[in-house]
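Repro case for the chain-ordering regression, as requested:
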Amino acid sequence: MGNPKTIIDVNELQTSFFTSKGEVKAVDGVSFDVPSGKTLGIVGESGSGKSITSLSIMRLLEDPGKIKGGKITFQGEDLLSKSESEMRRIRGNRISMIFQEPMTSLNPVFTIGDQIAESYMIHEGLSKKEALKKSLGMLELVGIPSPKDRLKAYPHELSGGMRQRAMIAIALACNPELLIADEPTTALDVTIQAQILRLINNLQEELGMSMMLITHDLGVVAETCDYVAVMYAGKIVEYADVETLFKSPKHPYTVGLLKSLPRHDIDQDELEVIKGMVPRPDQLPQGCRFAPRCPFARDLCRDHLPALDNIDDKNQVRCWIYSEEWDGPEVNVQDDYGTAQSKQS
Amino acid sequence: MLVYTIRRLFQTIPVIIGVTLVVFFMMHLIPGDPAQIIAGERADEAQVEQMRDRLGLNDPYYVQYTRFVTDAAQGDLGNSVRSGRAVSSEIGARFWITVELAFYSTLLSIFIGLIAGIVSATRRNSFLDMFIMIFALFGLSMPNFWLGLMLIQYFALNFDWLPVSGWGSPQQLLLPVITLGTAGAAIIARMTRSSMLEVIHQDYIRTARAKGVKERYVIYKHALRNALIPVVTVVGLQFGVLLGGAVLTETVFAINGLGRFVVEAIRMRDFPIVQGSVLVLAMLFVFVNFLVDISYRVLNKRIELD
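-- result from build under test --
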């Protein structure tokens, strides 16, 4: 990835849940970095480990989740060796997070103003009065109409879109260096989604933050991100800049995801789907984790896990097809995907 | 808030009417003729009839009911059959003793119950949690007259630390308040624990942590305020149980409160006293639940009355 200035560098992160039935690997050796001022999209289906990755960075995993290994370097500082109180000074101040559910992510018994002001009071040591004044400014910044009244409103008095704006105001209050947005628009109406995305984009530019955007929606990625990491079953399977990924995806899973998007330019009777389901993290296949669903899979894939390799300047792919060990016929994943898939069943 | 309070106040009216109806008909439904009892067993038919006339028992029910309500509203609850004194003055002082006993017991159970519940929830499945929950189970299962007797046995008789009975001095308060408050503390502890455990996994708690809020404030500010909402309801309902329990506790500790007085009045068939006491206690219960609903609204702004 080798960008000169990175804001955060995640290296071989391993996060597991230790349940009574044994260890469940939710994130299994994930590495990426976010270049300063840029946006990295992390894409994957539910259960791919993308949310756990972001909670690991914040060190907000709940029991029985534990970070087992790896390194997270934020602005040159090792996050995993920080004490809880040191982490607290980073959370909401230098790294902020927006969550998926605006309906439940705000505390129902406190006013919007109180909830934004709390950040200023914790991290900047402001008095309640000063903090509320700055909160008003934040509400204006995120485009909430009649912000003075909203300051005294309770979450239930706001619509979903307004609540997400309030969440953004909370997250951005202390001018964080990195914003982690975990499915920020998933729970919203389509028209509101576009507004919120535009807002996040504009604010990112205005405030010069770096961002990690976690989503399962490739449309959102295309609109917002500079780089994309595609996750599947706890591992990154492809990493590229956004243009490359959409133009020439390499991993069969990425290709399948792109093919499953509805298109305007051609007539489609039916949407393409990737057959099968994401494996449960406690029942991971032995070889490539996508092999059971991959139309190109061979014995090599089923028995051995491929590494994430640079295949040219732009793409990093975790797939045997691009390796020297590949023992099957030559394939062009993008062109042959459809035919291979129809043979698969 | 003011509108809410006023509307909630209006909602108590049908309840109060219901209470007066029940109390009124209770007198007519229980066996025994009040006129006969008041006139005495040796009174002849004419005397009983005369008494019935004087008590207005020959009037139609609605006339009697209206009279009962208008008199009660003016503080006139009739006269005791036995002493002949006004029911309101007989009840007066005793009523305040019971209110005091119930009030302190409620305070104690809220105080102990909340602390125990929070500690239990934040240290779920620890030794301390188990200890508290077992203790709470005991607290719940113990009949309070037995607990009262045990406390008297040990703290008053064996160790001679506290007085056996009576009411008034702080030392005299202690044992009855513990006796009456223990069950409530146990219920509140269990309720607080389960409510906290539910709240602690909500998204907004994660938001608070993501903001960098100290764990102590996450628990006591962000979680507790939400967890208290169901607990407050329990406190209100518990108050009714407490008034019932007060009867036994007052008996065990020989406290001259309303509870014990009612029991005696029932035994003596002193109907006006029973009627007046039940009415006053029911009103108190309605009032406490009114307060509970108000505090409910303070805690939870989402509550609207329809």
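Ordering looks correct now. Chain A touches chain B through 29 residues (CB under 8 Å).
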